[in-house]
């Protein structure tokens, strides 16, 4: 159960290994926040395709409170996907802190640019973090989305 006092400063940033207990918690969190409200579920094929992606999260005690997956598109470019924060804790800065820490991690790996497909309802969240709209609106998983990018290392 999430802590009522959960704030970014009291949480631990972690890298999540594919198929670990934390990864299973991430799948459950992503399902609850992103899929279940749409009447969707993850298929075994979708989960298997994540084996070569990076997975990160924010822990509050033993509970995973936020998570995100990252696909390395090239050595210099990454794609953030499946960002989820426990619904009872949204708006407390946990998601912003997770994205900032992921950006730092990616920067140390040589990534220069990050892209993502933001749900339209999350567009302002990403704009506040420095992401810019780089495409026309489109529909993905039955919802309006927009492509956004951010340069994290300037050449």
TrEMBL record:
The chain crosses the membrane at residues 54-73. The keyword ATP-binding does not apply. GO terms for molecular function: acyltransferase activity, transferring groups other than amino-acyl groups. CDD domains: NAT_SF (cd04301). Pfam families: Acetyltransf_10. Keywords: Acyltransferase, Membrane, Transferase, Transmembrane, Transmembrane helix. Residues 1-153 form the N-acetyltransferase domain. SUPFAM superfamilies: Acyl-CoA N-acyltransferases (Nat) (SSF55729). The keyword Thylakoid does not apply. This is Putative acetyltransferase. It comes from Rhodopirellula maiorica SM1.
